[in-house]
Amino acid sequence: xxxxxxxxxxxxxxxxxxxxxxxxxxxxxxxxxxxxxxxxxxxxxxxxxxxxxxxxxxxxxxxxxxxxxxxxxxxxxxxxxxxxxxxxxxxxxxxxxxxxxxxxxxxxxxxxxxxxxxxxxxxxxxxxxxxxxxxxxxxxxxxxxxxxxxx
Length: 151
Known about the structure:
Blueprint: H1 4-16, H2 26-38, H3 43-79, H4 84-88, H5 93-97, H6 105-136
Helix pairs in contact: 1-2, 1-3, 1-6, 2-3, 3-6
């Protein structure tokens, strides 16, 4: 049987990852602080803390992979056929540069990667809320697609 205090702490660990929307790296700092201060008190808190932190680290890994693909492709596609004089002439650079003839397979890959990133952030938010509800009910929840960095 899981005590109410343990349920509340585990729920707060999951919900503290949402601080990323207000405080940079809050999704790592606050769960680690709460988990490390309470992990020896309860196996339930320890398990939920590890799951929340591992999920956040996994999301960071997936985000970095998406950025490594998308950012260089966008930079390359923007500056591929552009000279400094085209930008400095006062012409509307964006409208002149982006039209259907300039869209290549690699740009489509970058767009898909950005859409995948947005999808990951939405799924991350939903899974955090779901894991918080499970922890509040005293149930164990393991996030999908999580690499176990902390065992």
